[in-house]
Amino acid sequence: MTTGPRFRFAPSPTGSFHVGGARTALQNWALARRLGGTFVLRIEDTDEARNRPEWTQGIIDALAWIGISSDDAHFEGPHFQSEYAEAHVAAARTLFDSGLAYYCDLTAEQIQQRAKEQGLSGYDGYSRDRGLEPAPGRVLRFRVPPGTTIVNDLVRGDVSFDNDTIEDFVLLRSNGTPVFLLANVVDDIEMAITDVVRAEEHLPNTPKQQMLWQALGHTPPRWAHVPVLVNEQRKKLSKRRDKVALEQYRDDGYLADAMVNYLMTLGWTPPGAEAAGSEIVPWVEIEAAFRLEDVTHSPAFFDVKKLAAFNGDYIRLMSPDEFVERAGQELPVEWDRKRFVAIAPHIQERLTTLREVPDKVDFLFWPEGSDVEYDPDAWAKAFAPEWAIALLGDVIEAYGDSSWSADDLKSALEAVMERYSIKLGKAQAPVRVAVTGRDVGPPLFESLEVLGRDETLRRLVNAASAAGGDTANVGR
RNA sequence: GCCCCCAUCGUCUAGUGGCCUAGGACACCACCCUUUCAAGGUGGCGGCACGGGUUCGAAUCCCGUUGGGGGUGCCA
């Protein structure tokens, strides 16, 4: 165990890993490593999650994907909340014995009733001095002291709460089980956590937690509440409405590096990014520079468009070998890898996600002799000019005995198109549609080179015939 | 209702009293390049919510207004 600060990340398993959680995890991770501390993963093992171990595993896998892995020295865990269950109750007992907490037998209805009568919003402290002993049906409440609680937050500075506005909150339910707030604090104490970095939504709970730390005889940790991530409606990202599952982005072909980089730019800018004119910054630099004090105070919109832009940049940053390796994983197994290697350099700079790879190159892998499926619009546009069919015929003839390299194929087409006084941009359209069925795609001549003479000619002839041209004498 | 947080281009942000004629990134638009589409290059559009102070000077400090968001469980 290292001796530096101890950062905890305490996600609740819900079946998918939230991008917001990923960001706080990353922030904790960056700090723990930079400061020579420890990243402690404490997973909340709720009843529901206990029946679905894959949920917990999902968190671990997701963290590993973004580079937070137990293989690293600065990692401790996962720990589970239940591992400290006895300590939770013991802590509550201590508080009761020392008079810092008391039992109350009011039901929720009664509390509501009293609040209504007095025009208050919550519990009024009715049982504070009634000296009730523990008994089934009674809850243990924390005796909130008078005064003011000041939370010193690394991101926001001092935030002060008037204790009068904090009701005597429940520690132990009437069935004797501890509530989350207590469990959380006790876990943090047990784990000797020194720094709590989490989303801003937890800020209002913090004075309660801080009071508990103190009541339990411990110095509270350093707090830091980073702004939440929101959707286009400026609402906190929710699983129901928004695409928030990190796994989903992973499966959609986003790169971990791009995701990590993008997530870290939400609420924070790497120093030097402005001078460099780019926010694409490697993790090592982020880790070396990230400071809580520099984090923005306002919520940030999770912009998939910008994520996509980052992703495209990261794809272009890959070495050719790496790209072939990564992109190859997206291809159907039966596709010839050698063929893909030949075309790979030409699609690498045309992608925003790896997921798009198959659709870009599929025309190279259609089964031999299969028909090209022409996109109607592309076809109509390509064969609208009156010269299109004739040009196709000429191309077929020229390609019949051209040497089969991209350069020569280009020259051959250029020679043909001169007869029609058109530019290359136009001339290549019918050829492209004939061969790929579409009007956009990787560079044409390189594609043809990879496709090979026989298949190219076959498709050209088929297209010419489909377009109504007489191909009977072509290629003789 | 009560409590807390927040407020710079469409979005993410730089800015910590003079360097701001408010900078960068993404998006968008135009042009260049060009073998379609991209990529790349160049340029452009576009913002300090409002009102009062403080100060020689305010995006920056203070107060208020308005507007957002979050929290308010015997949920986690």
Describe the overall structure.
This protein has helices spanning 19-34, 47-50, 53-65, 85-97, 108-118, 180-190, 206-215, 246-251, 256-264, 273-276, 283-289, 304-317, 320-328, 337-348, 357-361, 376-382, 388-400, 406-418, 424-436, 444-451, 453-466; strands at 6-9, 38-43, 75-80, 101-104, 139-142, 148-153, 157-162, 170-172, 195-199, 222-226, 229-230, 300-301. It is elongated and about 105 Å long. Strands 1-2-3 form a three-stranded parallel sheet. A three-stranded antiparallel sheet has the order 4-5-8. The chain has 476 residues and is α/β, with parallel strands linked by helices. It has 21 helices and twelve strands. The termini are far apart. 45% of the residues lie in helices and 11% in strands. The chain binds one RNA strand of 76 nucleotides through β7, α6, α10, β12 and α12.
Give the N-terminus to C-terminus distance in angstroms.
79 Å
Numbering strands along the chain, what is their spatial order in the largest sheet? 1-2-3
Main sheet makeup: 3 strands, parallel
List low-confidence stretches.
Answer: 471-476
Question: Count the strands?
Answer: 12
**Percent helix range:** 40-55%
Radius of gyration: 32 Å
Mean pLDDT: 93
The count of helical stretches stands at: 21
Outline, from the CA principal axes?
A: elongated
Strand content: 5-15%
Summing up helix and strand content along with how strands pair, one would put the structural category as alpha/beta
